[in-house]
Amino acid sequence: FFFQAEDGIRDKLVTGVQTCALPICILIAGGGIGGLAAALSLHAAGLNDVQVFESAAEVLPIGVGVNLPPHAVRELTELGLADVLAHTGVPTAELAYYGRDGQLIWTETRGSAAGYHWPQYSIHRGRLQLLLLEAVRERLGFQAVHTGRRVMRFDRGAQGITLQLKRSDGTHEQ
After folding, report:
1. Cα–Cα dist 129/13, whole Å
2. In whole angstroms, what is the distance from residue 3 CA to residue 22 CA?
């Protein structure tokens, strides 16, 4: 969600958790890879009033391996994550598919080995999410990520922006 105050009026975001003063306040519903990367990107663009709401009570390193192709690594490098990616991920030079009998079906070079300016990395999805979470908390503050709160809806009224949140314990707050 992106809100900009009209005619210089300074609205307030009311969540029962945090007040966010406008003229510009950004609320991100979802603290997964996309939401956390968006928060970092917005911060890099100079927008510091960013709040991320994640429904899970705790962000845990769950999932399977994912591949970050060169264009994704380029974006994460621009966000200052090149060193941590190089330390955490596995550089991927080749992608290959094999049949049930072990016979090679197809192969292709990837990342730097394929001539790109950026490498391709294989990384555990949960580790990627945790390194993004750590970067968001480091840059925007620990309070910028609200866990255990699912955004159910939002309304804009005379009092400002009101979020309806569902906590991980099933209770609601507004």
Report:
1. 27
2. 8
The model's pLDDT over 113-129, given as tens digits with 9 standing for 90+, comes to: 999 999 999 999 999 99
SS3 154: strand
- 3-class state of residue 48 by DSSP: coil
Q: How many CB atoms lie within 10 A of CB 8?
A: 6
Q: Are 163 and 29 in contact (CB under 8 A)?
A: no
From residue 39, how far is each of 28, 35, 138 by CA, in Å?
A: 8, 6, 12
Single-letter amino acid code for the residue at 28:
I
The HSE-up count of residue 154 (CA atoms within 13 Å, CB side) is 18
pTM of the shown model:
0.82
- 74-122 tens-digit pLDDT: 999 999 999 999 999 999 999 999 999 999 999 999 999 999 999 999 9
* Interatomic CA distance for residues 24 and 91, integer angstroms: 39
Specify the DSSP class assigned to residue 7.
T
Q: How many CB atoms lie within 10 A of CB 34?
A: 12
| Bridge partners, residue 94, by sequence | 109
Q: How many CB atoms lie within 10 A of CB 62?
A: 10
For residue 17, what are its two tokens? 């958790």
Question: Are 173 and 17 spatial neighbours (Cβ–Cβ below 8 Å)?
Answer: yes
